[in-house]
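Folding problem:
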Amino acid sequence: MVAVFSGILLTFSTAVFAQHEPAEQAPAAQEGEHEQKKEGFDAKEVIFGHIMDAHEFHFFEWEGSDGKEHAATIPLPVILYSAQKGLTVFSSARFEHGHAEYQGYKLVKETIGEKIESTDPAEKVYDFSLTRNVVQMMLALALLVWLFISIANTYKKGQGVKTAPKGKQSLLEPVVTFVRDEVAVPNLGHKSNKYLPFLLTVFFFILINNIFGLVPGTANVTGNIAFTAVLAVISFVVIIFSSNGHYWKHILNPPGVPGWVKVILVPVEFISVFIKPTALMIRLFANMVAGHIIIICLISLIFIFAGLTHWAGWAASPLSIGFTIFIYFIEVLVAFLQAFIFTMLTAVFIGEAVAGDHGHEEAAHH
């Protein structure tokens, strides 16, 4: 790929001559021409516009007969509160993609996303707007609840208990069985049924959001550090409340370790308690963001080469689309893989926290 793109760049590169006259002496017409030449495809804006949160679902743009660009979007509700104006609710379409103000508020686009500010510097605004990440999480949650309640009701009617599962049952029962037999039981043993509902919820919630993020125009929810941070905090709370004295004894006073080694080992072990959920957060976030960035970069190559010459854009299209389709299929695999890894590591960390109980219960039983 590097060799092909390098050949295209060398073949269709254009010469750029230095400007001998000072910039301030250039005619106004030439300045306008330079400004028009600077305008073009901005890959950075496209990439960050996709992976960051927004107040609308943006699908595509086209140039209308009036010569203006139009966008196919689904605006989302803006919900603001301030002491001066009280509660204010309106559609994000009022901002006209950041080009207009409405009721004293404006949409400010930044490097890491966009936010709503008041035109009055003295006004403090509390933003409760439904962004596309929030809306998509709600849709994923609604789908998750509907899916499993409908399947549970089917089992209550006897279908799949005494007879073969059908429909949604046959699709999800192997996945549920896999999480139980390959994730919960090996790591949690006799306590697997206690934590299985939590592990299944985490697995399917991440999986559904991963798959939703692969649909063009949707939000990359699992590629948002706030989303993965909340999941990591929930896992951390479950791990801490599941821990026992045996777990903390091995952290704060490792048995069979010389005293001078404990001085180094105990702080490391204690810090690892917080590093584990942090690793869960970063791993899911980085993998999901990386895949989306690669796909957008490959598609952006078409427009970057088209900026050199029209023919170069067409020549790069088959190669870019081919690699994009290849990476897209890998992303489908990654969607399942990252949900599995997050669930597996959570089960491993919980298993470490409850490891001491199994031996004590077996001794009491004997």
About this structure: The first strand starts at residue 56 and ends at 63. The chain has two domains: 43-127, 132-357. Strands lie at 56-63, 69-75, 77-82, 86-91, 101-102, 105-110, 113-118, 126-127.
